[in-house]
Amino acid sequence: MKIEKSKTEFERACKVISGGVNSPVRAFKSVKGTPLFIKKANGSKIEDIDGNVFIDFVASWGPMILGHTHPIIVNAITDALKRGTSYGAPTIIETEMAEQICKMVPSVEKVRMVNSGTEATMSAIRLARGYTKKDKIIKFAGCYHGHGDSFLIKAGSGAITLGLPDSPGVTQSIAKDTLTANYNDLESVEKLFIEHKNSISSIIVEPVAGNMGVVKPAKGFLEGLREITKKNNALLIFDEVITGFRLAKGGAQEYYNIMPDITTLGKIIGGGLPVGAYGGRKDLMDMLAPVGPIYQAGTLSGNPLAMNAGLATLKYLDSTPDFYKKLNDKAEKVEKAFIDNLKKTNVKGVVNRVGSMMTLFFNDLNKLESIEQIMTSDKDKYAKFFHLSLEAGIYLAPSQFESMFISEAHSNEDLEKLIKANLKALEQL
Ligand code: KE4
């Protein structure tokens, strides 16, 4: 595969952008090689500047559930563009967006729009701390909630990919208020509440972990977190930046029928433009300025272009009959084929899937439910598999600890090609 232009552009970028990328996980560090510079994308395909075309299963790390350049999104943005790009004043579309989120997400009665998932999670824990007047939070090792200081403690995604689960620059005084438990281990949570009685404001959790690769919540885990937080007067925050509008119209909280106190959203909600949001019960959200004393703000929050792209996406998801059934059926077909291929080739692996998000782990264990188990995965084997897939025209996440996504734009032909390429790559490992 020719990648001369990407090589040249990567060298150029490294002179003026840290690591040549604006987000570390894009740098192909853990899979080695040169990150591909993308020229354009359309539907299920993505094309790099050397003219290589791939079927895209990264979906910009989740947002592109409808595929690229979906007409409803292109038209929504084009139409909005003619009326200006940002006013810094209230607009009706922000109200329509808030109404749409409240309609789709069961626990959300009021929202606040922000510009990224990180802003949403940072704001959510500030709200939880302000509301409960307690300083500490509990997060789970391997979960990633963006790059806010309080979350870069045993974090997942790019942090775990690069082997930097804790980041310099996060002060001890911040880190001491972040307690870390083990995903799918309720005992580890109970222990923290006993040790830190009455000082824990909230638990923040990815209801389906996507940032250590996909790890499903064990039976009773989410219910247990709901019970423990209620019992200890703490809030339960579902970080649905990945699962929101991905697993169901109402995200993981609909899929598992659990009502958190606060929900954070991102990715799909912006239709590919920078949007994040957080929301919850009215009494909680009315603690925010200018109504209440807890401050949070943003120049471009509720930006009209982003709102038009996001609202068009949510309305489409909300009104397309059987959207999630069809999407999840496609993903189930891929999961089954991957498992078949592992058997045919005698390659040791585990496929974790929830809905249309999944990860193929290279691992000798039979099931992967915890960060300890995940960390025994063979990253070198994944790296080889990643490049073999790339050569076959399949664009996967450049990290064993991320998720791949099926989108509405993936045709049967795309999935057949994915399954064939998967078999061929496994045979060559
Ligand atoms: P952003 O600030 O990147 O929009 O969202 C942060 C975030 C919060 N919560 C969850 C559950 C997330 O997955 C994320 C961001 N996800 C990563 C990849 N899984 C984004 C990719 C990147 O960092 O470039």
Describe what this molecule looks like in 3D.
With 429 residues, this protein is α/β, with parallel strands linked by helices. The protein has a domain at 87-319: Type I PLP-dependent aspartate aminotransferase-like (Major domain) (Aspartate Aminotransferase, domain 2), CATH 3.40.640. It is 38% helix and 15% strand. It has helices at 4-16, 71-81, 92-104, 117-132, 157-161, 172-175, 186-195, 221-231, 251-255, 282-285, 304-319, 323-345, 371-374, 379-391, 412-427, and strands at residues 38-42, 45-48, 53-56, 110-114, 136-140, 178-181, 200-205, 235-239, 262-265, 276-280, 349-354, 357-362, 394-395, 404-405. The strands form three sheets. A seven-stranded mixed sheet has the order 4-10-9-8-7-5-6, with helices on both faces. A hairpin with a 4-residue loop joins strand 2 and strand 3 (53-56). Helix 2 runs antiparallel to helix 11 (304-319), helix 3 (92-104) runs parallel beside helix 11 (304-319) and helix 12 (323-345) runs parallel beside helix 15 (412-427). The two termini are 19 Å apart.
CATH topology name of the domain at 87-319 = Aspartate Aminotransferase, domain 2
Major sheet characteristics: 7 strands, mixed
Inertia-based shape? globular
- Content-based structural category: alpha/beta
Bound molecules: ligand KE4
Percent in helix? 25-40%
Number of strands: 14
- Mean pLDDT reading: 97
CATH architecture of the domain at 87-319: 3-Layer(aba) Sandwich
- The radius of gyration over CA amounts to 21 Å
Q: In CATH, what is the class of the domain at 87-319?
A: Alpha Beta
